[in-house]
Amino acid sequence: MSTPLKLVAFSKEQPARLLTIYLINQGINVEYQHSGNDYAHSVMLLELSDQIQAKKIAEEFVLNPNDVKYQTAAWQSGETVNLTPVKSFSAAKALYDLKQAPFTSSILAICLVIYLLAMIGISGPYFWLKIQPIAILIDSGQWWRLLGPALIHFSVLHIAFNMLWWWSLGKQIETTFGINSLLMLFVFSAIVSNASQLLVSGPNFGGLSGVVYALVGCVWWLGWLKPSWGLSLPKPIIGFLLVWLVVGYLDILPVNMANTAHTVGLICGCVFAWFLVTRAKSVSTQ
């Protein structure tokens, strides 16, 4: 038997058990496993030869867990698994999640505060963080402005999109690899993507989307390079984000897109995933 491989992990027990039952019903050797982290309920693949089929089924389940075929499989096996409706809001759960990922939470809070201050007319943080042409940066020495655009946003849709992806993916990376890894990815991708956008189109841009695309690239490539770590994105989500990246270059949207920052951020995330895997291999051989 092969070393068990984490196929997918959930924050609740019911969907993990439901998927486990369905996979077994399809002749795939898996088991349910509980751990102590945020996504504590895992489906473990016991035979690597079933990996391709199992990943396809898992992706379909994540997209539509309420499909009747999953509950039917549970009934046929003699078990009933009811998916518990997610509560709309729980202050205690929200506070717990924030404490589990302090760096992810901090960037989220900073971006929201800066945006809300701008909405009531306090635009000082915008001017202090706005990136400047390279020549001015060299003269002023205000190198923090290379990070600055990642923290400023210009509309509700802009900040909502970026904060959703930052929280979802950043929390996974921080709880899996620790705060230092997410900090390095944030600084690396923000500086490189912002500097690239500056050189291509000038200083009039902002947003966390370059870093968000770095998170996407990192999780995407980790799912490919090291699937046993349990981090991955469904193929439809990857496809949507890549298509959105291409659409930005077509100049058909009513808003200006920081296309260079998005592309360079994606590349930074892929490179960082390779770095994490290489570092882990180096440590394991020592």
From TrEMBL:
Domain of life of the organism encoding this protein: Bacteria
A GO term from the CC aspect: membrane
Membrane topology qualifier: Multi-pass membrane protein
Transmembrane regions: 107-128, 148-167, 179-199, 205-225, 237-255, 261-277
Main localization (coarse): membrane
Entry keyword set: Cell inner membrane, Cell membrane, Hydrolase, Membrane, Transmembrane, Transmembrane helix
Domain Peptidase S54 rhomboid stretches: 141-277
Compartments (UniProt record): Membrane
An individual GO BP term: proteolysis
Domain Peptidase S54 GlpG peptidase N-terminal: 6-80
InterPro entries named in the record: GlpG_N_sf, Peptidase_S54_GlpG_N, Peptidase_S54_rhomboid_dom, Rhomboid-like_sf, Rhomboid_protease_GlpG, Rhomboid_protease_S54
GO function terms (MF aspect): serine-type endopeptidase activity
Family matches, as PANTHER family: PRESENILIN-ASSOCIATED RHOMBOID-LIKE PROTEIN, MITOCHONDRIAL (PTHR43731:SF14), RHOMBOID PROTEASE (PTHR43731)
Protein family (similarity comment): Belongs to the peptidase S54 family.
The protein's name: Rhomboid-like protein
